Structures are given as C-alpha cells and as structure tokens.
Amino acid sequence: MALFVALFAIFLLVYGASIFLIPKRYGRLIVGDGIYYFVYLRSATLDGDLNFQNDYEIYQSFNTEDSIKKREMLERKTPIGMPANLFSVGPAILWAPLFVLTHWVALVLGRAGDGYAFAYQAPIMFLSITYGFIGIVLIYRVTASLFSKFAAFVALLGVWLATNVVYYMGVSPSASHVLSLFASALFVYLWWRGRVRRTKWGWFVWGLSAGLMTLVRWQDVLIALLALLEWGKQFADDARAPMPKRLGAALATGVLFVAGMTLAFAPQMFAWQILYGSPLTAPQGGGFFQWLRPEILNVWFSSKRGLFAWSPLLFLATLGFAPLYLKHRLLGVAAIAIFLAESYVNSIVNDWWGGEAFGARRFISLMPFFALGLAALIDAVTHSVKRRVYLTQTAVLSVLVAFIVWNNLFILQYNLWLKGIGHISALPTLQEMTLDKFTAPFLLLDKLRK
After folding, report:
1. What's the rounded Cα separation, in Å, for the pair 109 and 72?
2. Which residue among 180, 187, 357, 421 is least crowded, i.e. fewest CB within 10 A of its CB?
3. Where does residue 177 rank: exposed (0-12), middle (13-18), buried (19+ CB within 10 A)?
4. Considering only 235-249, 265-279, 311-325, which range has the smallest mean pLDDT?
5. Cα–Cα distances in angstroms (integers) from residue 259 to residues 197, 204, 224, in the given order
C-alpha cells in the first residue's frame, strides 16, 4: 500500500507541475470532451440553470483553434431548442462538492470568476486523480482477497501503469474515464463486501452505486449484470425456503436495487427532461448506433485505438477470465459476459475507435475485471511451477516492467505528436506502433535543447 500511496503522490506532483510549466490548450485545463462534463457544473452552480448558451460562448471566446468544436457547440440544438450536451452529468456531480467550496472561497476573497480559470479547474482535476486512486485501492482490496498478494500487486500495477489508465489519470483527468474507473471499482467492491450475506439495505446501497456508474458513463449499466447474476444466485441458494418466501425475498431485493439505481440516475433524467424534453433519450440520435454492423474485431485489434493493440497487457487479462471462472464461477461468468457486452456496444457506435484518444478509453471502467483476470492468470502460472516460484515471480515482474515501459513510451510518443513533434497516423502503422516508440525520448531531448 505504501507503494500505491507513493505512486499517487507522484501523479499529483507530476500533474501539478505540468499545469504550471507546460502551456495548456487555450490556456485552460479543461478542454475537449471535458468541457461538456464541466458546463453542467458551471452552469448549475454559477448560473442556476442548465442553459449552456453563455457557457459555450465563454469557452468559444478563447477557443481560437478548434473550429469544429466551435461550430458544434454553438449550432447543435436539442429537439426543444436548447443548446445540446451529448455527455453525462455524473462527472459534474462527483466534482460538485469541491467546486462549490472553491467558488464559495472565491466569493469570500472577492475573487469570483467565470469558472474557467485555473483556480476553479485545478482543484477538481486533482479530485479526479484522487477518485482514480481510490478506485485503484478498492480494486486491490477485492483482488487481494481472492488471489495471492503477489498476483494482486502485479495485476494492479499492470492495469494502472501499463494501460491507458495512467494517461487518463495523469495527463487528461478532465475526461470521465478515471471517474468511471472509480465508480465501477466501487460497484465491484460493494459486491465483494456483501457477497456472504447482503441485507436488504445492502441491495439498495449497491443499487445506488450501480446508478452512479451509469450516471458517469451510460454504457456502464452493463456492469450491473454482476448484480443480476448475484440476484439469481441468491434465489438459487434459498432453495430450502418455501417458494412464496423465496419469491417475496427476491422481489424485495430486486425492487430495492432498482430503486437505488433509479434514484442515483435521477439527476441525468432531470437534465435530459430540461434539455431534450424527455427523461430518457439517446442524445446522439438513432443514427449513432449501427446495431447490425458491429466492429468487434476492430475494437479489439485495430491499430486505430484497438483495445489489445494499444494495451496488449489486457489480452493476457482476458485470457485470465478462464482461471477466474475456475476460482469463482459467478465472477468469471460476469467478467466474460460484461466484457462481451461492452465490446458489442462499443463496436456499434459510429466512432467505434473513440475519437481522439489514447487507446480504447471506453473500456477503462472494466479495469476491475481485467485486474481480476490478470491476477487469476498470474496465480495459475506461478502455482503450476511450484519448485521455481522465485524464478517465476521474477519473470512475471520482468514482463510487467516491459509492459509498463512500452506503454509509457507510447504515451510520450502520443503526447509529443499532439504538440506537433513526431508523427502518428490516423490509422497507425506497425512501425509507428512499435519502433517509433523508442525514438520518442530522443525527440523530447532534441525539443528541450532547442
């Protein structure tokens, strides 16, 4: 745990140094899709409404480069004529307590602003990183309870530092992904805490956490399949009880879970009612989904942000779903079902690659399951070579280090490209995905010398 805390401190220090030493786009911390999450918070707190017209106009006053986003923001309207917002309200809710406190302090000091200044945005970016760290700790607690501490330790460092989690936690925390990691980790942790005997109140609280997951990223409602499987297991385990009692108990727990989930998701329905005139909608429109044309193989393997192409460690993690099933059947079935369901949903949207992103960002919420699969695989490998445990563990650590180095060289290469240094194609070539990584440090040194 000391190492995890040290890594968390490094994230805070590195991000803190970067926001002061490295120029940010338009001079602001929150850009890109993060703006859409942020305007929910800014508009509700500073304006007392969800009319984003003035929020978008303020942003556009300093957006001198992104003509596409400028046009989208100012021209896209909802069916009832409101300025549109295609993104979720969950991040704003998780940021809200600190943002409100920041604004209150600014008012007391006579320094209140428009909400876009560093003094408003920096605290909630550090809060996002903190949420991510809490999620990492929760994942470790669950993983270490089911597998050896060595396997849990390696798996956690792997999904944290050898995937795009490190990017969205340390480089781009204004996106929703590190918050979705926290929300899904909390959901899985609450399953683990109540796995022996879950009270009716426990089902309601677990439902609240499912609603929070969905509030942050709507597609993550699929992770609630774990609750459906647990609910079925509980019904089956009560086989000795009279059928009316079993049905009554199952109905009660199901209703409480759904009630908690609905209550937590209510802010999104409230926002949609105001913006779109309906509490349930698909803001992107029906044409956004190509239900019968899934691009699953591309989502997994394409060099255009494919899950395994950009984060190859996760291929091993999915192989680990087999030993995970042997260790804990319900969890193994849930991991496989949720992974396949999320893969399908991500493959039928128009931008299955996830737009401008480092890797398959829409899978970050599945990191609790990837960590469990990776830990299961590590234990299966180490247990199969009982007489050479030390050598096996050394080999596993060496592979982990290789994946971490590979991933972070890729991040450096990607960030340099974003700043106009080096090159990555829209559909990266094999050389760009492999050999060119190792030239990134030299490109950086050359830039620093100039």
Report:
1. 36
2. 421
3. buried
4. 235-249
5. 20, 7, 14
Interatomic CA distance for residues 308 and 299, integer angstroms: 9
For residues 241-269, one letter each, b for 16 or more C-beta atoms within 10 angstroms of the residue's C-beta and e for the rest, the string is eeeeebeeeeeebbebbbebbeebbebbb
What span, in angstroms and rounded, lies between the C-alpha atoms of 155 and 375?
5
Query: Do the beta carbons of residue 256 and residue 263 sit within 8 Å?
Result: no
pTM: 0.95
- With b meaning 16 or more CB within 10 Å and e meaning fewer, what string describes 7-24? bbeebeeebeeeeeeeee
Q: What tens digit of pLDDT does each residue of 36-70 get?
A: 999 999 999 999 999 999 999 888 888 776 655 66
Other CB atoms within 10 Å distance of the CB of residue 355? 11
Helix axes 177-193, 200-216, angle to 10 degrees: 170
Other C-beta atoms closer than 10 Å to the C-beta of 153 total: 21
Residue 242 three-state SS: coil
DSSP state of 83: B
Q: How far is CA 5 from CA 1, 8, 137, 422, in A?
A: 6, 5, 9, 34
| Cα 369 from Cα 450, distance rounded (Å) | 45
Residue 380 DSSP class = H
| DSSP assignment of 34-83 | HHHHHHHHHIIIIISS---HHHHHHHHHH--S-HHHHHHHHH-B-TTSPB
pLDDT at position 441 over 60: yes
